[in-house]
C-alpha cells in the first residue's frame, strides 16, 4: 500500500487512445507530448477528464477516428499514442 501502490494501479489501468478497439471509450488522464502537437490536441478538446470513444481505425493503422463531446476527430498514430486514458468498464 502507500502512494506508490496507488500510482502503479493508475498506470496499469491507463492505456493510449491508440490501443483502444472501435467502440471502446474512456477518460483522458494525460497528454504525453509537448509543443505544437500538444497544443493542437488541447485546441481540439483533448484534455484530462474528457471522455473519448474510439470510432474506427483505418486499415493501415492511421488515422484513428474518435468522438469526444459529440465531435468527430481524426488523429495520426503518434498523436493517439501520446494521449493516455483510463478505459471505462461497463
Brief overview:
By secondary structure, this protein is α+β, with helices and mostly antiparallel strands.
What does this structure look like?
- The structure is a single chain.
- The protein is of the alpha+beta class and 90 residues long.
- The chain has three helices and six strands.
- The protein has a six-stranded antiparallel sheet with strand order 1-6-2-3-4-5.
- The radius of gyration is 13 Å and the shape is globular.
- It starts with a helix and ends with a strand.
What topology emerges from the helices and strands here?
Blueprint: H1 3-13, E1 14-16, E2 25-31, H2 35-43, E3 51-57, E4 64-68, E5 71-75, H3 77-81, E6 83-87
Antiparallel strand pairs: 1-6, 2-3, 2-6, 3-4, 4-5
**Which oligomerization state do the chains in this entry correspond to?**
single chain
Beta fraction of the residues?
35-45%
**Beginning-to-end CA distance, first to last residue:** 27 Å
* Helical residue percent band: 25-40%
Contiguous low-pLDDT stretches (5 residues minimum) are: 1-12
Structural class: alpha+beta
Question: Based on DSSP secondary structure assignment, what is the total number of beta strands?
Answer: 6
Strand order of the largest sheet: 1-6-2-3-4-5
Helix count?
3
Largest sheet: 6 strands, antiparallel
Shape: globular
**Mean pLDDT, nearest integer?**
87
The radius of gyration computed from the alpha-carbon positions, rounded to a whole number of angstroms, is 13 Å
The helix/strand series, from N terminus to C terminus, equals: HEEHEEEHE
Amino acid at each position: 500500500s502507500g502512494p506508490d501502490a496507488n500510482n502503479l494501479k493508475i498506470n496499469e489501468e491507463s492505456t493510449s487512445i491508440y490501443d483502444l478497439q472501435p467502440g471502446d471509450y474512456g477518460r483522458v488522464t494525460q497528454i504525453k507530448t509537448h509543443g505544437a502537437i500538444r497544443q493542437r490536441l488541447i485546441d481540439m478538446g483533448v484534455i484530462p477528464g474528457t471522455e473519448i470513444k474510439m470510432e474506427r481505425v483505418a486499415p493501415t493503422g492511421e488515422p484513428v477516428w474518435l468522438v469526444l463531446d459529440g465531435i468527430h476527430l481524426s488523429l495520426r498514430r503518434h498523436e493517439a499514442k501520446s494521449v493516455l486514458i483510463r478505459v471505462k468498464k461497463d
